[in-house]
Specification:
CATH superfamily: Peptidase G1
Largest sheet: 10 strands, mixed
Number of domains: 1
Order of helices and strands: HEEEEEEEEEEEEEEEEEEEEE
CATH class: Mainly Beta
Number of strands: 21
Oligomer: single chain
Structural class: mainly beta
Radius of gyration: 17 Å
Strand order of the largest sheet: 1-9-8-7-6-13-4-19-3-2
CATH topology: Jelly Rolls
CATH architecture: Sandwich
Helix content: under 10%
Length: 276
Amino acid sequence: MTRRWAIPVTTIVLALGSMLAAAGGASAVTAAAPHTTTVRPGAAVHSFTPGGTLVRPAGGLRLHSHGRFTEAESTNWSGYAATGGNGAFSSVSATWTEPTAHCTKRADQYAAFWVGLDGYSSDSVEQTGTDSDCDGRTPDYYGWYEMYPANPVYYTSTVEPGDSFSASVTFSGTETYTLVLKDLTQGWTQKVTKNESGLARSSAEVITEAPSSESGVLPLADFGTVNYGSSTANGSSLSADNPTEIIMIDNSGADKDSTSGISGSGGFSNTWLRSN
């Protein structure tokens, strides 16, 4: 069986985030707006980040060709990422159905689903999405946005399993990012505009993630299968950009979930296999 090269993610993410914030990376989160909170729904998790940055090996990014796509491994991401030079991407979007968190153990586990710019080959991520988490045997569902390395901001609007979502991140002008998350089932829309300069915009991705805390990557909640509908980058199907297919693995190299092929319209799925 052909092996894929690993892209490890460790607690260096947190140190990197602090360095970037000090150097003037993504701005700090401002006071919470109506329908938002800076406190994670459910039990507190110190330095919790539903999204975050892939950290590359010191020797550079090593990938394996798999058909017309390139394949890579990560300890916290799965899905697809289109990549290019700085300024290559100005928008990304996708739809998905919020999966059910199967919370059968007395253990805290987490799963995030999002769209974003940056993070694959840069040190910031501009992203918005949802979570299906387990606080022990109690499921938590919520939406959020994050201008990593700034702290995440959570929406207080109701999220239920089976809800249909659409999400987008769009760059315009010289520094304006618009992040939109819509729950088409509950009937709410959250729209945030953030002004940031100097961000790379070198990737656009649709990702299932095992969130992180100060201790590193957290256990992946059993979300069953998440189905992403049409996904786009720069207004065209994500599949047209020959995106990198990303597989999430544990520290032993075993797959934590699977990533399906991507359709011509940008649809694909991730299916949970193990927590860690």
